[in-house]
Write a structure and sequence with these properties.
The protein is of the alpha/beta class and 187 residues long. The chain contains four helices and 15 strands. The strands form three sheets. Strands 3-6-9-12-14-15 form a six-stranded mixed sheet. Its EC number is 2.3.1.30.
C-alpha cells in the first residue's frame, strides 16, 4: 500500500474514533498517537530488513517525542489508532489486528524473558480503555472491549467485555454500544 494512502487511512481512522477531531490538517500535525504509529512503521521496516539497532534508536526517539513506546518488532494492522497516547507501551512480540484502538496508559506487556511469543495478540476491532494492562501471550478476541484499568492475563473470546483486576470476560450484549460506536470507514 502506498504511503500517502496509508496516511490518509490513518487520518480517517482518527476522525472516526475521535469526536473532537476537527480537521485533517489538525490531525496530521498534532496527534501524537499517529506520529508514533508512523515512526513505528518506518522502524518496523528497518527491523524486518535487519537494521535492528537503527530501528530501536528510531523507536526510542519516537518515544521521547510522543510518550508512546512501540517496539519495531511488534506486528500492527491497518487503521490502528492511539487516542491520548501518553504512556502506551507495546512489546516486541505483540500482534495488533486491523481497526484496533488504544487509550492512554495501555500496556501490552510480556510475561517472560525467553525468546518466545511473550506479548498479547489483539484481534481486529478490539478497543482497550485507559490504563488497561494486557500481560503475556494472551489473545483478546475480535470485537472485544477491555475496560479502563483492567488487568488481562487470560485469553478472551471474540465479542467479549473484559473488566476488573484480574479481568473477567463476559459476552458483549447485542445492540449495546458500551459508550462506543462501531467504526465506519469511507476511504
Amino acid at each position: 500500500m502506498r504511503i500517502l494512502t496509508r496516511i490518509r487511512e490513518d487520518i480517517t481512522a482518527a476522525r472516526v474514533h475521535d469526536p473532537a477531531a476537527r480537521g485533517n490538517v489538525e490531525i496530521f500535525l498534532t496527534y501524537s498517537g499517529l506520529h508514533a504509529v508512523w515512526a513505528y512503521r518506518l522502524s518496523s521496516r528497518m527491523w524486518v530488513r535487519g537494521a535492528k539497532m537503527p530501528a530501536r534508536a528510531l523507536s526510542q526517539f519516537a518515544r521521547f517525542l510522543t510518550g508512546i513506546e512501540i517496539h519495531p518488532g511488534a506486528i500492527i494492522g491497518r487503521r490502528f489508532f492511539i487516542d491520548h497516547g501518553m504512556g502506551v507501551v507495546i512489546g516486541e512480540t505483540a500482534e495488533i489486528g486491523d481497526d484496533v484502538m488504544l487509550y492512554h496508559g495501555v500496556t501490552l506487556g510480556g510475561k517472560s524473558r525467553g525468546r518466545e511469543k511473550r506479548h498479547p495478540t489483539l484481534e481486529d476491532g478490539v478497543q482497550v480503555g485507559a490504563g488497561a494492562k494486557i500481560i503475556g501471550p494472551v489473545v483478546v478476541g475480535k470485537g472485544s472491549i477491555v475496560g479502563a484499568n483492567a488487568v488481562v492475563t487470560k485469553d478472551a473470546p471474540a465479542l467479549s467485555v473484559l473488566v476488573g483486576v484480574p479481568a473477567r470476560a463476559r459476552p458483549r450484549v447485542q445492540g449495546k454500544t458500551y459508550g462506543l460506536t462501531e467504526p465506519e470507514y469511507n476511504i
